[in-house]
Amino acid sequence: MATSICRTLKFLNQATCSGLKAVAPLLYVQFPQSVVIPIRTKKRYFIPPAVGLKEKSHAEQEAKARAAGVVIRQEYMERAINVACTAGIVDPYVPPEGDARLSTLSKEGLKQRTEQLRQSAASQLAIRKIKDHDSEFSSKEFAVRAQEIFIEAHLALTQFNKEKLHSLVTERCYPEMVRGNRYKTLRWRFIESLEPPRVVHARCPDMVSKGNLYGQVTVRMHSKQTLAIYDRFGRLMLGNEEEPRDVLEYLVMERHLVNPYGCWRLHGKIVPAWAPPKDPIIKTVMIAGPKLKPDEEFNSLNYEVPKPKAVQWQK
Fold first, then answer.
1. CA distances (Å), 111 to each of 101, 103, 106, 222, in order?
2. pTM of this prediction?
């Protein structure tokens, strides 16, 4: 029995193998051989770090770039300077406390007057240096001219005349006057002078080199002005056009004395420490209202705007 089963299996195996050998030539398909063409690509010497890896220090990145043959340009910490004007007010004038309020006949007024006379010695020396370069300089006439420059500069500011404003103010004063005035409407008017302007301080500093002199003259101006600032929605933010106010200002005028084509321009203002604080600016804020349905109108809801809650600020 066992021998008959083995003979049967051997016969089946021989028949199957012969059948497969007959079918094999039919299944065999000859494909063309693949051709490999070498393409020259640009080699990346410096591969940027992948996202998620630990950041390397600047020194390690620079060393790796140098090893790969990439030269990193050296960065210089440079600061641009402008030789047409100085960067600030040199030895600024300290206004006496209670100026334009105290009388010279009172005891405190006499003390302040004597201190001003003591400090005027350095100013006289500076005025002499200024007259060496500007022969037409006069303290009385210059105070009136400084007031005219102040009025012209502020009128150019309200009209947004940049070309004229650059000719009336220095490069240091220009960004201070223009900053924050975008999308705003300015209404300024000079009414009258309560006191004649006068020169109270003068300095003649130098910059870069010893002979490069600049003249800085401080002018005291007491006048009556009006100012109103409106936001882009036309709402009043500060001041009032119909309410004139008394303004006491200390203007600093500057000129590059060495430059033969230089002219006196507004350089800045001196705000004393005892000056009263400015009025707060009224800002327009959008308050979120109720969500309306497509068939609803806001007026029909009789919605009341909620008042802000009182907040206790910790000092």
1. 14, 11, 9, 21
2. 0.65
Residue 201 in contact with residue 123, Cβ under 8 Å?
Answer: yes
DSSP state of 274: T
Which tens digits make up the pLDDT trace of 74-95? 777 777 777 888 988 988 888 8
Residues forming beta bridges with residue 253, ordered by sequence position: 217, 266
Residues 255 and 262: beta-carbon distance below 8 Å: yes
d(Cα 266, Cα 48) in Å, to the nearest integer? 51
- List pLDDT tens digits, range 12-46: 556 555 554 554 454 455 556 666 666 666 666 66
In the block, residue with structure tokens 């507004």: 266
Q: Pick out the chain residues at pLDDT < 70.
A: 1-55, 100-110, 112, 115, 118-119, 308, 310-315
Q: What is the DSSP letter of 206?
A: B
The pLDDT of residue 17: 55
Tell me the C-alpha distance between 277 and 273, whole Å.
10
How many other C-beta atoms lie within 10 A of the C-beta of residue 147? 19
Round to whole Å and give the CA distance between 247 and 193: 10
Q: How far apart are CA 285 and CA 152, in angstroms?
A: 34
What b/e readout covers 161-183, taking b as 16+ CB neighbours within 10 angstroms?
eeeebeebbbebbbeebeeeeee
CA distance 255 to 136: 14
Residue type, 235: R
